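User: Show me sequence and structure for the first protein, then do the same for the second.

Assistant: Starting with the first protein.
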Amino acid sequence: MLPPRAYFFIGLNIIRVLSIVALVLVFASNIVTLVHDVEAVNRFMAAKGSDASASNSTTTDMLNCDYIEDSTVPNQPAGIFWAVLNRLLIIGQTVVLVLSELGWPSKFFDRFFPVLGKDFGLGALGVIQCLIGAAILSHFVDDFTLVSAFFLFSIGCLNIFVGLIFRQGAKSKRSVTSWREHAKSALPTHVAGVPVAPIVTHAPSFVTASSKASLGFGRQGEKAAAMKGYFISKPLESLPRYAPK
């Protein structure tokens, strides 16, 4: 039977793998959406140029829409700029979150993005994932992007829940390096799910502050221990069981 720490390690790393998969899917789907938006804008600009020479009701209706047809780009001044910038920011955020989930470079995150470092839990990561998913789901997108964003939003909610349970110790419980350091111990810490960690106690020292010389285990050492409040108990005298009474 594995100790509870092993189940926590396996479960948290499964969530980590699902989080990385969701981020990679959102990264790929946003690149696809970005390509579709650029193609739709090119068609829109071509139709806008042809409308100046020949009047067409279909072309006029397309030019007067709130959004450019077959895209997430709003038909307004600098709409294409903000739409492309939005996609690039989402792609950049997914890259940063994937690196934080991999734990590389850890010193960079600990210094410049502490909420994604090893000293913080998974709550902040889950909030960012939910924000990215909500930003994508707020637009009309294709099925691949829709499923990827919904999957990321679900994983973000799961990370928030796990972060509330384990708090700042979530990343240390799933860390491979901390697991290896803990495995170096020769003594077992759990037997059948019961903690059996050794209790280390320090024996009192009988060294005087002035002479710093050991008094040994004789009468002098016993007197010095009694003066400090330590008493040495003597075992009770008893006869063996086979001895005649």
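Switching to the second protein now.
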Amino acid sequence: MPLYDCVLLLKPHVKQEALLDLVSRVGKHVIRRNGVLTEIKSVGTVQLGYGIRKLDGRFYQGQLMQMTMMATPNLNKELQYLNKEDRLLRWLLIKHRNTKYGVDVLGDDNGKGMFGEFTRSSLYNEDDDIDEGDDDIDEDDDDMNHEESKEEQSASGPSDGIYQG
């Protein structure tokens, strides 16, 4: 089963009980279809970039909820009843692509290949000494390269009358 995020944007005046009722209805719907609800997150009241017009006015704020779930691919068709919900301003179902979870993360080598190329010495290389004199050498090299390019330009003379400095 793929992983989905269901984002619900509710009207700002919706009470907490009504919000929880709507979220529990969606959650129960997913569970009845053998899905798993993995996370429910409330962002709170958010300012919208533009007003959303509904029958009872234009809304510039909304209450944002995010539900993460594993469900069957036909979940989008099954959640179309949310279009008729008068407490919602907008809803969006987002499918996670190329997400590995559970046993798929481990693969054939039981997860050892994922971090096997990093050894402790390569992650925490204690032998690296920072040479603070490098900055001075780099500046001197740049000055010398700049002077050499000026000498080359003056020796060759103006080729087409365009200054190249």
